[in-house]
Structure formats: structure tokens, C-alpha cells
Amino acid sequence: NAGVTQTPKFRVLKTGQSMTLLCAQDMNHEYMYWYRQDPGMGLRLIHYSVGEGTTAKGEVPDGYNVSRLKKQNFLLGLESAAPSQTSVYFCASRKGRGQEQFFGPGTRLTVL
Amino acid sequence: GESVGLHLPTLSVQEGDNSIINCAYSNSASDYFIWYKQESGKGPQFIIDIRSNMDKRQGQRVTVLLNKTVKHLSLQIAATQPGDSAVYFCAENHPSGYSTLTFGKGTMLLVSP
């Protein structure tokens, strides 16, 4: 099993550009999450999904959109990137409530 | 990467020492807790978990202690090795709704040979 994979690993955007980050998991997990990690801030939840076709807002959802069209994929979109969105983005999945989350390797995004 | 560690509390130990990393959690209703390890440039990795009906759980070289009275969690690492150098996060599981995890800011552990 590959576990949780993320594409791309690195990206540099200019302010106002759009992009989509892809997360894929092959563990048949129901729940998927997108976090951002900034120095000294820990992991902050952007959006999450509890199943195919469902999404919900997390702690810091503004400026991001998500879609879960297939159970194994969770996409994070930035419609108009801002420098404040420079961060490392992590995707995670879990089988169900009260269980550990498995994390991907991260995507380092820089917005100039 | 190394930017994760900026402004984090840091614990420096010698190889072979026992390490204790502490975490204060926020929600007295949280029912599940996890410790993660994050090495430079990588995603967090699961170390050990504990449910709220327990006060201690042991793994290989690691022990987690839970004190619900003061909302405190600790991770003990026995015979710390240079490979244990990383940032360690605790996370709490909120039982309401679909129970997302809330993460602490982390502690950097530096192990000297």
C-alpha cells in the first residue's frame, strides 16, 4: 500500500493564480482531511470529509475549496492564491472516529 | 522541514537518557489522544494513542500518561536515540460531531550522541 500520497511536492505560485492539490489514499478510509502547517502554529484544519460527496469546513477554511468526488481522492483548491497561503499542506485520512490519522508527505507551497 | 521547529519549546537530551514531553489539552470531553512524531521534511507519523478510560499505555520504548484531572498528557521515551530527534505533537479527539483532531503546537526533541 502507498498509504497517503500528495501531488505535487512543491509549487511556487504568483498572487492571484489558482491551483489544485491532490490527495489520494489506498486504505479505503472514510475520513479525509486537509491541514496547513506554519512555523510555531502546529497543524490547523482547513476542510475535511467524512465520506464520498461530503465536505465540511475546519478551523481555517477561507480562501480554499475542496471536493471529494471519489472516496480515495480529496482535492484542495486555491482559486486566487495569496501570500498568506504560503505554507506546508498535509493531507490525512482515517478509517473512522476514534482512530489514528495517517498523513501524507506534504506539499510545500510558496505564493509570491 | 526545519521551519516547523521555529519558536517551538525544545527539549535537549543526551543519547541514552529518558525523555519526557508534556502536553496540555484543551477539552475535558476529549475521548482519544494521539502522539505524533514529525521528522524534518516529512509528514507526522503515529507513535502511540490512549483512550480517556485509561491513564497509561506502553509501547516499544514509549509510554503515554494521561491525567484527566488536570488535562495533561505526557510522552516518555526510554533510552532516547539520535533517531528520536524530531518534533512531537499531541492531538486530542473531540467526541462531538464527526470528531476532528486538534493538534498541539509541538515540542522539538534534540538528542545529542
Describe this structure in words.
By secondary structure, chain A is an all-beta fold. In chain A, 0% of the residues lie in helices and 54% in strands. In chain A, strands 2, 4, 5, 6, 9, 10 and 11 form a seven-stranded mixed sheet that branches. The radius of gyration of chain B is 14 Å and the shape is globular. Chain B is mostly beta strands. Helix content of chain B is 0%, strand content 50%. Residues 1-5 of chain B have low confidence and may be disordered. In chain B, a hairpin with a 6-residue loop joins strand 3 (32-38) and strand 4. At the A-B interface, strand 4, strand 5, strand 9 and strand 10 of A face strand 3, strand 4, strand 8 and strand 9 of B.
The fraction of residues assigned to DSSP E strands of chain B is: over 45%
Q: Biggest chain pair contact, residues each?
A: A-B, 28 and 31 residues
End-to-end CA span of chain B: 21 Å
How many strands appear in the DSSP assignment of chain B?
Answer: 10
Oligomer: heterodimer
User: Which word captures the global form of chain A?
Assistant: globular
The termini of chain A sit apart by: 36 Å
Helix content of chain A: under 10%
The secondary structure category of chain A is mainly beta
**In one word, what is the shape of chain B?**
globular
Report on the biggest sheet of chain B: 6 strands, mixed
Order of helices and strands of chain A: EEEEEEEEEEE
Determine Rg of chain B (CA atoms, Å): 14 Å
Short description:
The complex is a heterodimer of chains A (112) and B (113). Chain A is mainly β and 112 residues long.
